[in-house]
Amino acid sequence: MSWLTVDTPLPSGPLHVAVTAQGVAAVGFLGREGELPRCADESKIAAVTVRVGEYLAGRRRMLDLPIDWSLSTGPHRAVLRTLLREVPFGRTITYGELAVRSGVFGEVEEPGLAARTVGQMMAANPVALLVPCHRVVAADGIGGFGGGRVGIDVKRWLLTLEGVLEPTLDWNGPL
After folding, report:
1. SS3 assignment, position 131
2. Which residues in the chain come in under a pLDDT of 70?
3. How far apart are CA 51 and CA 6, in angstroms?
4. 165, exposed or middle or buried, with CB in 10 Å at 0-12, 13-18, 19+?
5. Does the keyword rRNA-binding apply (predicted)?
6. Phi, psi (rounded to 5 degrees) for 96
7. C-beta pairs of 92-99 under 8 Å, 24+ apart in sequence
8. Which of 4, 25, 81, 174 has CA 20 to 30 A from 66's CA?
9. What residues contact residue 65 under an 8 Å CB cut-off, 6+ apart?
10. HSE (side-chain half, CA atoms, 13 Å) at 157
């Protein structure tokens, strides 16, 4: 696994992306500065940098990068794959709806518990942005996002980019 950094207009600053021979294995919004080893594969650096840049500039709706799923397993991977497959650009799904659609929880007798579990799975999503956990929202609002206040700002920024939320006066993204 090797790391590269992609400059972004996101409130969190640059993305830190881990790549392997299979694809993107991890994406981090905060931290990872100085993570070793650094990616030296120019084709991987270019693919990630160009596609993320185009997406954040509003010129791409899908990143279309290969994903290395090795950092998620079992039910977590099943929920993430359901999200990737069923919730496209510009759409959202609630934590509870994703729990049901994934089929991981069987007959959901305690929907609040399943929704909270999905929330924890989203917070532990190793390939955020590629598997768009920002599109998973609470039944009564935006919900959370890893990284505290900066994380919520990133989620709002991404949902505004995708047209789910209206731009505010301080919006600094593409129009």
Report:
1. strand
2. 30-36, 108, 147
3. 10
4. middle
5. no
6. -65, -40
7. 92/135, 92/136, 92/137, 92/159, 92/164, 93/135, 93/136, 93/137, 94/136, 94/137, 94/138, 94/139, 95/119, 95/122, 95/136, 95/137, 95/138, 95/139, 95/143, 96/139, 98/136
8. 174
9. 23, 24, 47, 48, 51, 130
10. 23
As a whole number of angstroms, the distance between CA 31 and CA 105 comes to 33
Look at the pTM and tell me if it is higher than 0.90.
Answer: yes
Structure tokens that stand for 31 in this block: 């931290």
39 is catalytic: no
pLDDT of residue 23: 97
Name the residue type at position 111: P
Q: What is the distance between the alpha carbons of residues 130 and 128, in angstroms, rounded to a whole number? A: 5
Amino acid at position 11, single letter? P
Answer yes or no: are the C-beta atoms of 16 and 33 closer than 8 Å: yes
Residue 5 structure tokens? 């950094």
From 133, 137, 154, 158, active-site residue: 133
Task: Give me 147's structure tokens.
Answer: 């990284």
Integer Cα distance of 95 and 102 in angstroms: 11
